[in-house]
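=== RUN LOG ===
request id: a7f3
mode: sequence -> structure
chains: 1
length: 653
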Amino acid sequence: MGHKHPDKKKKKPTGQLYKGTLEVTRSGMGFVISKTFGQDVLVRPNDFNTAMHGDTVLVKITRGQAGSGRVQGEVEAVTERKQTDFPGHIEMGEGFAFFIAETARPMPDVYLPRAKLNGAVDKDRVIVRITEWSKNKKPQGEVVQVLDESDENDRVMKEILIENGFPIVFPEEVMMASGKLPEIIPQEEIARRKDFREIRTFTIDPADAKDFDDAISFRMVKEDLYEIGVHIADVSHYVETGTVLDDEAYQRATSVYLPDRVNPMLPERISNELCSLRPDEDKLTFSAVFSITSKGEVKDYWLGRTVIHSDQRFAYEDVQEIIEKKEGKYRDEILILHDLAQRFRKQRIKKGAINFSSVEVRFRLDEKGKPIGITIKESKESHQLIEEFMLLANRTVATHVSKIKIKKKSIPFPYRIHDTPDKEKLAPFVLFAKKYGHHFDTKTPEGIAASFNLMLEDVRGKPEQHVLEQLGIRTMSKAVYATENIGHYGLGFSNYCHFTSPIRRYPDVLTHRILQEVLNEQVLVHEKLDEQCKYCSERERAAMDSERAANKYKQVEYMKEFVGEEFEGVISGVAAFGFWVETVEHKCEGLVSINSLMEYDDFRLIESDYALVGRRSGRSFRMGDKVRIKVVSANLAKRQLDYEWVLSTPSKS
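=== RESULT ===
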């Protein structure tokens, strides 16, 4: 399956164990993808030994050798489950029940004792958690939730989360542990901290947010010197290492934001109550406090634990209005912070940060979760105000920790890293950008970043802006968590970490813990940190996949109303089997299949041109082209929109 064969001389004997991921095909056959072995290992269903699709396993080679064609093996042990919860339905027996999973890949039926049915009856659609499973026995489970048959949206959203390995219900012991956390902050805890309660402090968040994990304090030291505090919810005070709360937060690793819900990393008692920096309440925080001149020069900083009292909760829209109208509550503070943020932003871009503009498409939903409209959310100055101060705090913490050496070695730390662009992905993009008159200096990473910024500035407001931005983003590497610090290319920082969102991201909790050890001058050995970074990166990708799948479902649900209608669109992607079009009006993407174009010409993919070109007519469909389409089908089960090209728009290049 596309893995290279190792040197044939180094034949590996049967019986050895290798770590890998089990991939189960729809027919039920398994393959273990192992980097350490160097090629895929075929595993027959009888040899899965309780492993399921996506699980991390140890596989034992039983037939064949590396480099000698087909290699067969059996799963010796499951080291990590991708998924423990499954959607399906119940079938009742005498005194017990069976659960039949409704999954894309085959899996055995699950035995459910009567006591574990949680009120479910015969034929109910349910979510079941596997609780016990040993070799040569049927898996045993419990009903986590009975699904409401009439609420299709709720069922689908839960299934998307479960498919991606996110539990949708907190275990009872986790809820009990969060319920026992004290609401009142003990006086001795306040005495241990720097007290910011008397200093003007406020939060700026989306209008519908409930978990406020960052606040900003402002104090004028003298006319051209300010003390600005970035205060972050002190989650690690409440979620201690080795507790059930910590284990659950790590397993989830991130909150997942779907169109109609948040699947939180931490129970709501912590995320929306104890740790949320709500106005008019004393809160425990971990802070980065800066002395900054009116010209935007950071003179000094302090890192440590604090207690704050937020005076005001702003929505981004409120702050945007204050910036634009130059009036409103805390006007002076907000305008100073705005000015500093814009200075920081200019400095960053000048030093090589790549300035992609960010536009978010959100669905307006009715009370049943049905999409009734679309809103476009742009990054405005109020968003940039918060973003710049969060970037400053994250960078400062990472730089501070990076300087700490033990026996001349840097201490392990969960850096947020971003590699330079992939040369193979960059080459066709550079040629494509050239057609629009943009020249790239590809000799150095700095040259690439500067070329990107020149191009992004030049295309702003032009028809090709969207296509060049989208393609530019695709050439970029993915940012990940790692203990090896290679810097963050996209932001132009040598040191960067995530410190500012511990309510919704587990790496920020790790950052807080290690930073406190550094401040205490008692750094512990974090042997599993590398593994934790890889796991958190993988969970972040799974959360993004969930969000993409849920948004796609909403797009299909929304466009169902428009089957048979025609719309203007822009080509957003091309492949050998067709091209994708995003409607201008709704920003909903569908596929125009190559089969539906057969009557016009025989089209082939020209990769360097991001285009499908007709052999006879020379007609082309290139990324960024405007086309007219007709909505032909909206398949909710497959989360798929099918469009047809409508000839009325001339489209010759």
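=== NOTES ===
Confidence is low (pLDDT under 50) at residues 1-12, 649-653.
The first helix runs from residue 152 to 163.
=== END ===
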